[in-house]
């Protein structure tokens, strides 16, 4: 049965139409991946370009990686002119688990530096299908463990908030689970922007958005299949929606668009955090497609979403 999708917000629909495409990143299959990666790479700023912002201090650091893994490239962004230790936002990038690097999807995250004087540390991780789970997750965890061991090296005060959008939100949620279970790292909060949480891809919203909007059910299946690599059992550290125990996790912020593939799994994850006695704030933005604030940052809904994240961080950190 065909399920009618929710309508797009008119301002966001106009922004999507202005790209000259009726949808973005829909219907992706692995045989298209090289082209998709090349197209994405053209949109990612260089370190030099990021450093032209006079409000930011931008540097790259190479740190030890996971056992049997490569060294990690961290991008560190600090507020220029601020020298006292500040909380750190540890960012895992999006890209469907199959694309992207530590500079991808940074625009909404740099709000935290510009508006709140926080430090952002963004990690690169190995991508599927060349490196299926757990490679990328262990890379991200290794970077988090390094950061927690020496936060002063990047101007941090010891408080760490995990964040990421889309696939990066999946990794941020997985890192919260790993930090709880391994007991090596203390995490202050998890800010999950339209996170990609559930490999099963069977929700109503996934079916509604087939071939529509940004990152549809077909692309989602491609990303998850590559990430899981045909594993018979799916770990909650690979797909956080598989976690059966959500107790003892740090406070969470989650948001979603009403017209995106991940809507229902995000709402369900927030509900299960509450059921486990957790602290979670959930926003579902009416008429928003996936990654709406990244693609249309000046839209009213995008501005409201960004403001909500800043408000949550202020409350969480007491700033």
Automatic annotation (TrEMBL):
<dbReference type="InterPro" id="IPR029058">
    <property type="entry name" value="AB_hydrolase_fold"/>
</dbReference>
<protein>
    <submittedName>
        <fullName>Esterase LipW</fullName>
    </submittedName>
</protein>
<feature type="domain" description="Alpha/beta hydrolase fold-3">
    <location>
        <begin position="90"/>
        <end position="292"/>
    </location>
</feature>
<keyword id="KW-0378">Hydrolase</keyword>
<dbReference type="InterPro" id="IPR050300">
    <property type="entry name" value="GDXG_lipolytic_enzyme"/>
</dbReference>
<dbReference type="Pfam" id="PF07859">
    <property type="entry name" value="Abhydrolase_3"/>
</dbReference>
<dbReference type="GO" id="GO:0016787">
    <property type="term" value="F:hydrolase activity"/>
</dbReference>
<dbReference type="InterPro" id="IPR013094">
    <property type="entry name" value="AB_hydrolase_3"/>
</dbReference>
């Amino acid at each position: 049965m065909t399920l009618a999708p929710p309508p797009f917000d008119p301002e966001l629909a106009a922004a999507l139409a202005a790209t000259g495409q009726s949808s973005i990143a829909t219907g992706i299959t692995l045989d298209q991946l090289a082209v998709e990666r090349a197209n994405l790479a053209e949109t990612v700023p260089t370190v030099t370009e990021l450093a032209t912002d006079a409000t930011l201090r931008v540097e790259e650091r190479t740190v030890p990686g996971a056992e049997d893994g490569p060294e990690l490239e961290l991008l560190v962004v600090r507020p220029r002119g601020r020298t006292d230790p500040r909380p750190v936002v540890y960012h895992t990038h999006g890209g469907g688990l199959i694309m992207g690097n530590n500079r991808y999807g940074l625009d909404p995250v740099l709000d935290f530096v510009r508006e709140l004087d926080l430090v952002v540390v963004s990690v690169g991780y190995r991508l599927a299908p060349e490196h299926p789970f757990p490679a990328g997750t262990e890379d991200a965890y290794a970077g988090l463990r390094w950061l927690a061991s020496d936060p002063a090296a990047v101007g941090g005060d010891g408080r760490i908030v995990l964040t990421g959008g889309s696939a990066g939100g999946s990794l941020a949620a997985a890192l919260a689970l790993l930090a709880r279970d391994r007991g090596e790292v203390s995490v202050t909060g998890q800010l999950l922007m339209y996170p990609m949480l559930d490999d099963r891809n069977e929700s109503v919203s996934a079916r509604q958005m087939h071939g529509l909007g940004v990152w549809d059910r077909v692309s989602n299946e491609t990303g998850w299949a590559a990430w899981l690599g045909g594993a018979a059992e799916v770990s909650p550290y690979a797909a956080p929606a598989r976690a059966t125990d959500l107790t003892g996790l740090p406070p969470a912020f989650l948001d979603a668009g009403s017209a995106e593939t991940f809507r229902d799994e995000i709402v369900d994850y927030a509900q299960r955090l509450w059921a486990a006695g957790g602290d979670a704030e959930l926003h579902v933005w009416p008429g928003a497609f996936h990654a709406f604030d990244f693609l249309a940052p000046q839209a009213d809904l995008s501005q409201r979403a960004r403001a909500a994240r800043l408000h949550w961080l202020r409350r969480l950190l007491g700033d």
